[in-house]
């Protein structure tokens, strides 16, 4: 019951934005960037993340970071996090400077809900080499949630982190922070994770996802979130619940793409070719599916018809624009 209330509150207060069939958006979440120490889980996927961001930037995407970008409950000094991952923040700044970076806060970066904290830690940065301060993400306004509304059909995609209503990570987040910072942090360094987290607790994770589904069925809106670290692309189009997965899997990261009015779940991972050359490859895991296929406001027959029309109409355009630069790099390596 509380989850339904919190999701509805977030929806009512969400920032409204528009998209259409020419929009290119990538949703990624749960990078949990740390301070570069042995307990920083982001270290193992940092190169994947930076490479993926560079590809999305070059291909004209807007980057939605859907919460828990930083692990601020475990590492309280944002300055240390920025210094540990300079390449990552340089890539993020490129998006921001082109007005193509949208930041949503989650439970592990809840401090971004405080404008004073944001101004102090994200508006400026310090260049240790040249010993000067410079404008970083000056003027950024992190949001709890965003509603993406299609300009022509009015279909909505509700985007938020997904911790809303998960009591330990929402209304009692402060006590969770204390337990992580002063207890679980030390176990984390040797590979032991908090069993109460939805990431490790399957029963809790499924309960959270059931609550998402109930809200979707009641309000007839597609929902895109993170939080559970379990990627999701709906088989049942009547319950359009999408989860971006996370940026700290052992050997890959995941993302949800919205391009040409089509949704696609992808994975970026390291591969080795026949010549023993290590490279990064983007793989499609689910989709692409027309966004209209998940519009549960309309009768099923109408939705299926509109989806089929979209597939046929955009086939050539999608094939032309689908290629990423890493495919060219792979071919160069094979030559």
Automatic annotation (TrEMBL):
Q: Which InterPro entries match?
A: Calcineurin-like_PHP, LpxH-like, Metallo-depent_PP-like
Q: Alphabetically list the UniProt keywords.
A: Cell inner membrane, Cell membrane, Manganese, Membrane, Metal-binding
Keyword Coiled coil recorded: no
GO MF terms here are:
metal ion binding; UDP-2,3-diacylglucosamine hydrolase activity
One family from Pfam that matches here is Metallophos
GO biological process per UniProt:
lipid A biosynthetic process
Q: Which domain of life is it from?
A: Bacteria
* Nucleotide-binding among keywords: no
Q: Name one GO cellular component term.
A: membrane
Residues in Calcineurin-like phosphoesterase domain copies: 24-230
Q: Which PANTHER family match?
A: BLL8164 PROTEIN, UDP-2,3-DIACYLGLUCOSAMINE HYDROLASE-RELATED
> What name appears for this protein in its UniProt entry?
UDP-2,3-diacylglucosamine pyrophosphatase LpxH
